[in-house]
């Protein structure tokens, strides 16, 4: 990864000097695509060229030979490099940008075969981006480093350092081993840095394989604890870390690894970071990756923001606000006081509509302060970043002034105090220094406002005057030559020159204009220069160079003043974002009639008139109404379980998820889509869908389902909320039923959590007689002449049937198949009436009593007709049967059952 300046390439047999240089630089950066600068292009060679040409859809060519074979090559123009970088980074690649660091003329002086000196000046990686064009404004861009320490022989803790160098945010936390996957999922990092040992740990292999982040292992020798501490001290210019609070060894290791990686990728540029904030363990609602995916919190199962909860609730008006909203949604709180402070702020902004509107207008005008500040710190900023600082400080002061007089709740008052710390003088200085129209790059000049800097004004005048003098000179020469079409023009090769038609040119050469010096003869024109014109030219060039140099000084001076207050400005950026989030929640609450939830430390979960924000929004677009539903899982000693049966398409999944979303929204500080909600704070949230629903998972879905269910049964506490949707349906009916049954008993007897459980196994509803904290609920349907109408209303009780056939008919299954299925169903139902399995299951002892007395029996304890049907069933391979054979098999099974 490191690169040394290469001017005298190694002697690589058979390679041209340039190719030898390339190979040497590439060898120092083996895990990056190497953008090798050649003139106006970045060229890629060998395998890099093949990867890039495929990824970017650019032509693969060849250049020379190496080891007897053609060298594949492709290239991207330098001025469009950002676009290509963007696409490569989005695909998870890392790119080393290698520049020419000397003038080709200099290289020539060393000898005809010398190669221009080149150096890697930057590594562009997904987790260390700073350019606006490469970043999503509404999303943090996190680099996550992971360290580890042994707590006891059987326990390990992981330190997490999350850094967004595009905003300077830096947080540290430590989690227990089993919590690591959920913690990583919450951060949604773009890139993960860790030691080779953690990377190679077989227990974690799946984590690194499944993550969408780029994973970078670092060698143990580079991650010495002493150098980690030193790096942190150096970053913040402190002698000891004590001032930051106490960090664990794992956290320090993580922070050290993150800083080392940043050092490497930024090539010494000092990245301005805020002091690390430490997050206590358990401070956020633990939500594992599967639950996040299943609830589609920040993206849908197909990976898009559109259709996610985040998209449905986002009413922020600034990029910083949008990022903070996503962060809050990813990590809802567990601390009641902090949640209440957020709710107070929202309530205040709900109550005062005109104040909210003014606030949102002011926030809308505020540019992305945090990202501009970070670019200034890194020396990558342009005039527009300074303007962003000006706009941000102005907005902060305007908001502080606007809210200053009001009686504010504590949460908002604190934010306003932070805004009020904005340096008025600096804001005014930026205001008077910067012009209205600003170029992207400082080297383009013209960004200092006229009247701000006397010397700049003077030099500019000189430049303008010289242009006037050129016009006068042109008029004079035109008169002297008698040629009205004589022009003084400018190009990059000749500079200023006099152009006349061919005939006049000939006359000039013959003595018409003695002071003219011939430069070029064109097809129908001649070009000249003169001493006077040459002098003027150097005056003009001198003046514009001087303006550029002076403007650059102004830029540096302003940057320094800004960076001297970097911490305060970063804090102002955070406060603006927090206000935007509160105002967004308030706007949403007013728009959609959401209410403030009542939160406490009980085990309450009582929701009246609850709705699903995303489904409701989709229905609203289609002009349909969402049916609100109540849900009560409140308990004293332990939570209640609601077992939901009901027809396909009745709304079970929607109902389950909407209740999980209410908890997420309430604990992130938002109001909730319900008429009222009384909620005891939740420590962990689990949501799972039975394998058959979980198409995004691909292979071996039942195994995944069981692994995840195991995690829930092992981790859910009395404070947790568990949502299980059709668990057990990914396997044979009786296996699935038995598993679902045992899981329910475990949740009730062992976990004691609040839970929602949807199922098509109607047999399970019998459990309500024996498990005191389990209630049955169902979704109402109405039948009209054989057709079914879903009312989407959740009511106490048990579904009579699944209405699968009616749904099949609605879906357009051929009428003959539906009719035939009806006949088969009748047959199956009558045999079930004769030999009901439910009665037999009812006789079984409860899970708890079983486990307390003896370990659970190895076989499912349900007595089923499998004893006789087993061998027959084993012989059937459903995937290889034709429909006809399937029907025959069904008849055979029925006949066998009749005999049994
Ligand atoms: N409360 C509601 N009000 C109005 N429409 C609803 C409601 N709940 C669900 N729906 C509609 O019904 C559709 C099916 O809902 P959902 O997927 O939750 O059903 P389900 O019972 O889980 O079905 P299945 O058992 O087939 O998985 C939704 O896409 C939505 O359009």
UniProtKB/TrEMBL annotation:
SUPFAM superfamilies: DNA repair protein MutS, domain I, DNA repair protein MutS, domain II, DNA repair protein MutS, domain III, P-loop containing nucleoside triphosphate hydrolases
CDD domains: ABC_MutS1
Residues in DNA mismatch repair proteins mutS family domain copies: 720-736
Record-linked Gene3D superfamilies: 1.10.1420.10, 6.10.140.430, DNA repair protein MutS, domain I (3.40.1170.10), MutS, connector domain (3.30.420.110), P-loop containing nucleotide triphosphate hydrolases (3.40.50.300)
GO MF assignments: ATP binding; ATP-dependent DNA damage sensor activity; damaged DNA binding; mismatched DNA binding
Residue stretches spanning the membrane: none
Residues binding ATP, per UniProt: 646-653
The keyword DNA-binding is annotated on this UniProt entry: yes
Keyword list, A-Z: ATP-binding, DNA damage, DNA repair, DNA-binding, Nucleotide-binding
Region feature (Disordered): 852-878
A Gene Ontology term for the protein's cellular component: cytosol
Alphabetized Pfam families for the sequence: MutS_I, MutS_II, MutS_III, MutS_IV, MutS_V
Coiled coil: none
GO biological process, one term: mismatch repair
SMART domains, per database record: MUTSac, MUTSd
Protein family according to the UniProt entry: Belongs to the DNA mismatch repair MutS family.
Function statement: This protein is involved in the repair of mismatches in DNA. It is possible that it carries out the mismatch recognition step. This protein has a weak ATPase activity.
Name of the protein this chain belongs to: DNA mismatch repair protein MutS
Organism: Methylorubrum salsuginis
Gene: mutS
């Amino acid at each position: 990864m490191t690169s040394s300046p290469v001017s005298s390439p190694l002697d690589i047999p058979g390679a041209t000097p340039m190719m030898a240089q390339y190979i040497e630089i590439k060898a120092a950066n083996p895990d990056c695509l190497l953008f090798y600068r050649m003139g106006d292009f970045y060229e890629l060679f060998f395998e890099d060229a093949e990867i890039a040409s495929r990824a970017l859809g650019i032509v693969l060519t060849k250049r020379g030979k190496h080891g007897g074979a053609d060298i594949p090559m492709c290239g991207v123009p330098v001025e469009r490099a950002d676009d290509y970088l963007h696409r490569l980074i989005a695909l998870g690649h890392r790119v080393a940008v290698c520049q020419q660091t000397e003038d080709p003329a200099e290289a020539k002086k060393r000898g005809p075969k010398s190669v221009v000196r080149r150096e890697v000046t930057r590594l562009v990686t997904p987790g260390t981006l700073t350019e606006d064009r490469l970043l999503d404004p509404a999303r943090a861009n996190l680099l996550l480093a992971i360290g580890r320490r042994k707590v006891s022989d059987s326990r390990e803790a992981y330190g997490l350092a999350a850094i967004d160098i595009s905003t300077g945010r830096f947080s540290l936390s430590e989690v227990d081993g089993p919590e690591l996957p959920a913690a990583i999922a919450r951060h949604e990092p773009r890139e993960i840095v860790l030691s080779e040992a953690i990377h190679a740990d077989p227990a974690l292999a799946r984590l690194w394989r499944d993550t969408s982040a780029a994973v970078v292992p670092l060698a143990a020798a580079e991650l010495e604890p002493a150098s980690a501490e030193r790096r942190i001290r150096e970053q913040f210019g402190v002698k000891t870390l004590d001032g930051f609070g106490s960090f664990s060894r794992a956290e320090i290791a993580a922070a050290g690894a993150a800083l080392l990686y940043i050092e490497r990728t930024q090539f010494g540029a000092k990245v301005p970071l805020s002091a690390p904030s430490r997050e206590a363990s358990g401070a956020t609602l633990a939500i594992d990756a599967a639950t996040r995916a299943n609830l589609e919190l920040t993206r849908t199962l197909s990976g898009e923001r559109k259709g996610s909860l985040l998209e449905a609730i986002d009413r922020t008006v600034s990029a910083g606000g949008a990022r903070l909203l996503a962060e809050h949604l990813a990590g809802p709180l567990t601390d009641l006081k902090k949640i209440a402070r957020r709710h107070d702020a929202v309530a205040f902004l709900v109550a005062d509509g005109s104040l909210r509107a003014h606030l949102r207008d002011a926030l809308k005008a505020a540019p992305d302060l945090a990202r501009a500040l970070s670019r200034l710190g890194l020396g990558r900023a342009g005039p527009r970043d300074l303007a962003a600082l000006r706009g941000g400080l102005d907005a902060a002061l305007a908001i502080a002034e606007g809210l200053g007089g009001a009686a504010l709740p504590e949460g908002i008052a604190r934010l306003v105090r932070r805004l009020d710390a904005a340096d008025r003088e600096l804001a005014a200085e930026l205001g008077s220094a910067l012009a209205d129209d600003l170029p992207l790059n400082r080297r383009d000049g013209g960004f200092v406002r006229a009247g701000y800097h006397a010397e700049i004004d003077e030099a500019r005048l000189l430049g303008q005057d010289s242009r006037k003098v050129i016009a006068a000179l042109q008029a004079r020469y035109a008169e002297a030559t008698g040629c009205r079409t004589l022009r003084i023009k400018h190009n990059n090769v000749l500079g200023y020159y006099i152009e006349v038609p061919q005939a006049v040119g000939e006359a000039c050469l013959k003595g018409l204009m003695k002071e003219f010096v011939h430069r070029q003869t064109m097809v129908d024109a001649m070009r000249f220069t003169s001493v006077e014109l040459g002098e003027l030219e150097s005056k003009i060039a001198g003046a514009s160079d001087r303006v550029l140099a002076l403007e650059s000084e102004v830029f540096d001076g302003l940057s320094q003043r800004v960076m001297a207050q970097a911490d305060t400005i970063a804090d102002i950026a955070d406060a603006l974002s927090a206000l935007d989030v509160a105002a967004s929640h308030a706007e949403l609450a007013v728009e959609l009639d959401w209410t403030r939830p009542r939160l406490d430390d009980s085990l309450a979960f009582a929701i009246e008139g609850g709705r699903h924000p995303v489904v409701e929004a989709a229905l609203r677009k289609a002009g349909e109404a969402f049916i609100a539903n109540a849900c009560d899982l409140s308990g004293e000693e332990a939570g209640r379980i609601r077992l939901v049966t009901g027809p396909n398409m009745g709304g079970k999944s929607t109902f389950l998820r909407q209740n999980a979303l209410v908890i997420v929204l309430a604990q992130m500080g938002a109001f909730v889509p319900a008429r009222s909600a009384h909620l005891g704070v939740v420590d962990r949230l689990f949501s799972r869908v039975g394998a058959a629903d979980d198409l995004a998972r691909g292979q071996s879905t039942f195994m995944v389902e069981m692994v995840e269910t195991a995690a829930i049964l092992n981790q859910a506490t009395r404070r947790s909320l568990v949502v299980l949707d059709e668990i057990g349906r990914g396997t044979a009916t009786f296996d699935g039923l038995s598993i679902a049954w045992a899981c329910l008993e475990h949740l009730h007897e062992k976990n004691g959590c609040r839970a929602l459980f949807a199922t098509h196994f109607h047999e399970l509803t019998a459990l309500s007689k024996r498990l005191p904290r389990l209630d049955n609920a169902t979704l109402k349907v109405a039948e009209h002449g054989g057709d079914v109408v879903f009312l989407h209303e959740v009511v106490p009780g048990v579904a009579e049937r699944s209405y699968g056939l009616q749904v099949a008919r609605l879906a357009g299954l051929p009428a003959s198949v539906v009719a035939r299925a009806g006949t088969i169903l009748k047959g199956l139902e009558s045999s079930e009436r004769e030999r009901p399995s439910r009665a037999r299951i009812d006789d079984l002892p409860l899970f708890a009593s079983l486990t307390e007395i003896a370990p659970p029996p190895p076989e499912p304890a349900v007595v089923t007709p499998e004893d006789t049907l087993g061998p027959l069933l084993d012989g059937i391979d459903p995937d290889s049967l034709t429909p006809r054979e399937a029907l025959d098999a069904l008849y055979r099974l029925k006949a066998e059952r009749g005999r049994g």
